[in-house]
Amino acid sequence: MLLTITSTTAPARDLGFMLRKHPDRAQTFGLPFGTAHVWYPQATDDRTTMALHVDVDPVALVRSRRLGGAATDHVNDRPYVASSFLSVTLARVLGTALRADADDEHDHVRSLETTVAVVSSPGGSTTVEELFAPLGYAVAVTTHPLDPAIPTWGDSPYLTVTLACDGTVGDLLRHLYVLLPALDGDKHYWIDDSEVDKLLRAGEGWLGDHPQRQLITRRYLKGQRSLTTAALDRLLADEPDLAAGADEPHAAAGPADADQGAPGPMSTPLHVQRRRAVVRELLARGARRILDLGCGEGRLVADLLREPTVAHVTGVDVSTTVLRRAAERLHLDELSHRQRDRVSLLQSALTYRDGRLRGFDAAAVVEVIEHLDPWRLDAFAAVVFGDARPGTVVVTTPNAEHNVTYGDIGPGGHRHADHRFEWTRDQFAGWSADVASTHGYDVAVKAVGEELSDVGAPTQLAVFTVAGDRS
Known about the structure:
CATH architecture of the largest domain: 3-Layer(aba) Sandwich
Strand order of the largest sheet: 2-3-4-1-5-7-6
Order of helices and strands: EHEEEHHHEHEEHHHHHEHEHHEEHEHEE
Strand content: 15-25%
Number of helices: 15
Number of strands: 14
């Protein structure tokens, strides 16, 4: 199998620096299933191309116990098709670049073109487009006939794929690492819970906002339902689990599970835009002690702790499991005493009064209310706006009208299988006005994300302030 990566951003030879492979040297690496070769057929300041060739031993695939019988026939397509073999090679040979932070200052944006010589895609070119285009790639696909001499046999399932983008090398490698096995739909080794961790590490920052995230997750994990459910639960933890009570079951993501906002070409993912919008609203009102109600794994808590004017953040969630993950994500056991005093995590349901939630300047309720049964919303409002009564409350929820832009959500469908409802803009504005009137708040409703003239933005946001408080 053959993969090439080309940079045309001067000085293009910096591609070798990013890949940690010198352009003037050919290198060979031993693999459990064969050998990898890296060389540069072209290396100038104007255009540099790295080639990665993986020479797979088909006999070893059948005989090797270590590979678990990755193939049953000595003649097979595994030596030629980009698959999990290529993903493992990327991790072993280009692992430093693959694991580079997304904001690595050395991994500067450049014009990149990648060609994968042979890809197995049972869904054809359409599936390739659906997986790569939402990430900002211009996709070109070349089909290959089963037999050029017999055109009536039609095309084979094997394709040559070329991807062009203005993105970082690290992002490109992470996308390939996940999406090539997802396209192929198979893996050459036994998978377990550790494979979920690999997927989430490589998918951080982009997979959660991909319109085909469920398909990608399922196929990357070879269709194993328990692993797929676990991965989707963790992936979507930024949209917090139930905040209504510990007795309510959490539904696994199903066919109706869809994107919370597909990013445009190399744009900021919607979940990041949403958190930034919430932070802006809270800081604009001078909030220093803040509640994150339905905090999930603590991403918003982490964002707020980066703001020096924020004195304390309390994350609240009904799920003790999610709170443990939040503590791990926030590295609470490693913080200095001063930083540790700025954050706390509480287990509580948002439909029952809790004196620990009183006395805060502000509260954020980000993608939570749609997880509540509609008949619980009055109790939720009484707890948050009536009993806890922070000076400012920022609430976000999906805009149901925007769902038509997602091809896999049918009429009346929801973006997540656990959503009990999703509101139109008028419905959210009406609920917000009723809550504000009942509990003595003023309210302003705003949009988050790209706003389309006919269906609005993907997320709607309401800022509640105690009536008479114009700060």
